[in-house]
Design goal:
The chain has about 375 residues and is α/β, with parallel strands linked by helices. The protein folds into two domains: about 25-185 and about 190-225 and about 235-300, P-loop containing nucleotide triphosphate hydrolases (Rossmann fold), CATH 3.40.50.300; about 305-370. It is about 40% helix and about 25% strand. It has twelve helices and 17 strands. It has helices at about 5-30, 40-45, 70-80, 105-110, 110-115, 130-145, 165-180, 195-210, 245, 305-315, 335-345, 350-370, and strands spanning about 35, 55, 55-65, 90-95, 115, 120, 125, 155-160, 215-225, 235-240, 250-265, 270-285, 290-295, 300, 320, 325, 330-335. The strands form four sheets. Strands 3, 4, 5, 8, 9, 10, 11, 12, 13 and 14 form a ten-stranded mixed sheet that branches. A three-stranded antiparallel sheet has the order 15-16-17, with helices on one face. It is globular, with a radius of gyration of 24 Å.
Length: about 375
């Protein structure tokens, strides 16, 4: 190939890379991100301790019952409520299953309590999505209003996909009820029609969310998979709603319940929470699969500081012995866990702690990296 042609091709490639870098800075800079409220989950999702979820993306939280899915997502909204980059965003909690009954102010602060909204107002009453068609139509109307300059961008959490029925499901129920009254049986059928609807409409929805810089979070509940016999090697749990929910997600976060947390009160060990495991089973941002453990206390919520301390102990950055921790980076050589956490909070060391966790995280990533020559990097 002639030198001029090579130079032209090289310049075009460099220009494309520059344009690509501009695009990445636009969508993946700090101003476009909101924390999940968990330093470890942020690192698992983006590689940054203070960035978890980016504008213009759809995220899918899947998990077992009582694994903290609602707490995770409401904590994310709480982080947005105190993040100046989201002052002009509507924070929408689409409580379709009417399952989040905790006091918002107590757990997530007065700012979120003041800004939290339902997806629509019906006859003067805040109303959640009634079925999956209603969800898609309502969010589409909101996107129309944003494009027309009549509404703000949003972070929209729907809790949950399983609680949304469908027009098809209601039709089959009515057919079954009428057949029951006649003393006959309705025609057999499987499914609720949501998989087809998600497959058809999620693609367009995700495209519009990306263009308008909105964030959509969908929560799904796992269900036990009833095996057909000893040779059925399928997954132990399944999720309803079809494959489109995972296919179009920027990230899939899978939560499960780990160790039960107890505290002895009046001579009896009592349950006060659980360690929740969050695994990134799909991650378009980094392509990496991580699993992190975060304590969830019924009286407090997610314990970010405690999880960071536990991480540093588990990774041997802070040696632990005889019930005490050597937090050498903070000049605290022998201190018990709860005292250490209170000291960090009292002295305002939260930022330093998170940066230290990020440093150790990067060291682990570097140690796990395979050293190979990159054939696509041009030498200067």
């Amino acid at each position: 190939m002639p030198k001029k042609a090579v130079a032209k091709k090289t310049n075009a490639l460099k220009k494309a890379l520059v344009e690509g870098d501009k695009w990445e800075r636009r969508f993946f800079d700090k101003a476009s991100a909101v924390s999940t409220g968990s330093t470890l989950l942020n690192l698992a999702l983006t590689g940054y301790p203070d960035r978890g979820v980016y504008k213009g993306r759809y995220y899918w939280f899947v998990g077992d019952s009582t694994s903290g899915k609602t707490f995770w997502t409401l904590t994310l909204l709480a982080e947005a409520s105190i993040n100046p980059n989201f002052n002009d965003y509507d924070l929408i909690f689409d409580n379709a299953e009417d399952g989040a009954l905790m006091d918002i102010t107590t757990y997530f602060g007065p700012k979120l309590a003041k800004r939290l909204k339902s997806p629509k107002i019906k006859d003067g009453v805040p109303t959640n999505s009634e079925d999956i068609e209603d969800f898609y139509f309502t969010i589409a109307e909101r996107l129309d209003a944003i494009e027309a300059g009549k509404a703000k961008p949003f972070i929209w959490v729907v809790d949950s996909m399983d609680a949304l029925s469908s027009k098809y499901e209601k039709k089959k129920f009515d057919e079954g009820r009428k057949a029951h009254r006649r003393g006959t049986q309705a025609a057999g059928d499987y499914g609720d029609g949501k998989a087809k609807i998600n497959s058809r409409w999620m693609r367009t929805l995700v495209s519009r969310i990306s263009k308008l810089g909105c964030i959509l979070v969908v929560i799904s509940q796992t269900r036990d998979n009833i095996k057909q016999g000893p040779m059925d090697f399928g997954d132990d749990v399944v999720v309803s709603g079809g494959r489109a929910l995972k296919f179009y997600a920027c990230c899939q976060i899978w939560t499960s319940v780990g160790t039960n947390l107890k505290k002895e009160v009046n001579g009896t060990k009592r349950s006060i929470g659980a360690v929740v495991k969050a695994a990134t089973k799909k991650n378009r941002l980094t392509g990496k699969a991580w699993s992190v453990d975060v304590p969830l206390y019924w009286s407090h919520g997610l314990d970010d500081i405690g999880s960071c301390v536990d991480f540093l102990v588990a990774e041997k950055r802070w040696p632990a012995n005889d019930g005490t921790i050597n937090a050498k980076d903070f000049d605290l050589p022998r201190v018990r866990r709860e005292v250490l956490i209170r000291t960090i909070e009292r002295d305002g060391l939260e930022f330093d702690l998170r940066q230290l966790v990020a440093e150790v995280w990067k060291e682990i990533e570097t140690a796990c990296s395979i050293k190979r020559k990159n054939p696509y990097q041009e030498s200067e």
